[in-house]
Amino acid sequence: MAERDMMVQLQAVTKCYGSRGAATTALDAVTVGFARGSFTAVMGPSGSGKSTLLHCAAGLDRPTSGSVTLDGMDLAGMSERALARLRRERIGFVFQSFNLLPELSAADNIALPLLLSGKRPRRAAVTQALERVGLAGKRRARPGQLSGGQQQRVAIARALIGAPGVVFADEPTGALDSATAAEVLGLLGTVVRDGGRTVVMVTHDPLAATCADRVVFLADGRIAGELRRPTAAAVAERMTHLAADGRAATTPTAAQAEPSW
Fold first, then answer.
1. Helix axis angle, 106-116 to 123-132, nearest 10°
2. d(CA 187, CA 182)
3. In sequence order, what are the residues at sequence separation of 6 or more whose Cβ sits closer than 8 angstroms to the Cβ of residue 30?
4. For residue 254, what pLDDT band results from cuts at 50, 70 and 90?
5. Is-contact 98 154, C-beta < 8 A?
6. For the segment 12-46, what is each residue's pLDDT rounded down to a tens digit?
7. CA 196 to CA 165: how far, in whole Å?
8. What φ, ψ does residue 25 adopt, rounded to 5°?
9. pTM
10. Which one of 15, 121, 187, 222 is CB 3.0 to 4.6 Å from 111, fit for a cystine?
11. Which among 45, 96, 60 is positioned nearest to 219, based on CA atoms?
């Protein structure tokens, strides 16, 4: 696929944390791209680097080496101020914990990113955002008056209000029951199909991953394969193998386990 067709591209990205003598490598020379108008799920065992990949791709964290481009822009040469502006104007975020302000109404929570960008939100735009996520009658409701699924819908509307090119979702259904999670995932799928946006979703749930066009697997900070048009069974099988490989890598052999005396 041509580079111009990629909304986000990571090239040989490595991310290390800690001092040189005790550094932890969260990502190890990862090269992966996310096409425009695609829905990708990122999966892997705990500690595999999923959230670090998302943070580097979104400009929330700078890689130790390698490059990240978003909508054709190289993030490495951008100042923190420019990155913050990029995130406000071109990126939407959806998190497991919703991150809504409890004292604000649903409408005000949705409008907040525009206000922070120095723009005056149009009432019609906020109303349309509420209608798009099925909450037309909840304009004045505060988060405490909404169910978990409704709060996540507000969070999705907030992520979309600025018409971003890409939405990064970190475990967006982790706090929801299965039926509500299916509704939220369906909504994210609509974002891709109807809006032409790119969605990159970190998840641990094989069923959630089946809503994506592609699943990218990580293990030990490296790309460990991918699936196109995933099924829950195929995703679960791949995750089982990755977990088993991880356990085998950390289990001492008989010779190592036996004392030498």
1. 120
2. 9
3. 10, 12, 13, 14, 49, 53, 66, 218, 221, 222, 223
4. very low
5. yes
6. 999 999 877 788 999 999 999 999 999 999 999 99
7. 8
8. -95, 110
9. 0.88
10. 121
11. 45
Structure-token pair, residue 190: 């609509």
Instruction: Quickly state the pLDDT bin for 3 (edges 50, 70, 90).
Output: low
Nearest residue to 11 via CA among 53, 49, 55, 60: 53
Q: Within the chain, how many helices (H) and strands (E) appear?
A: 9, 10
Identify whether the C-beta of residue 92 lies closer than 8 Å to the C-beta of residue 164: yes
CB atoms within 10 A of CB 4: 7
25 and 16 in contact (C-beta within 8 Å)?
A: yes
Q: Quickly list DSSP for 180-200.
A: HHHHHHHHHHHHHHHH--EEE
Each residue of 120-163: pLDDT tens digit?
888 999 999 999 899 999 999 999 999 999 999 999 999 999 88
pLDDT of res. 31: 97
Q: Read off the pLDDT of residues 40-82 as tens digits, 9 standing for 90 and up.
A: 999 999 999 999 999 999 999 999 999 999 999 999 989 999 9
Q: Tokens 């890598």, residue?
A: 249
Edge-first strand listing for the sheet containing 73-74:
24-35, 6-17, 65-70, 73-74
Q: 13 - beta bridge partners?
A: 30
> Which of 103, 135, 134, 139 lies closest to 123, judged by CA?
139
Measured in degrees and rounded to the nearest 5, phi and psi for residue 77 equal -90, 5
Where would I find the beta strands (DSSP E) of 71-188? 73-74, 91-95, 166-170
Instruction: Give the helix, strand, coil percentages of the chain, each rounded to 5.
Output: 45, 25, 30
d(CA 52, CA 254): 34
Q: How far apart are CA 148 and CA 18, in angstroms?
A: 36
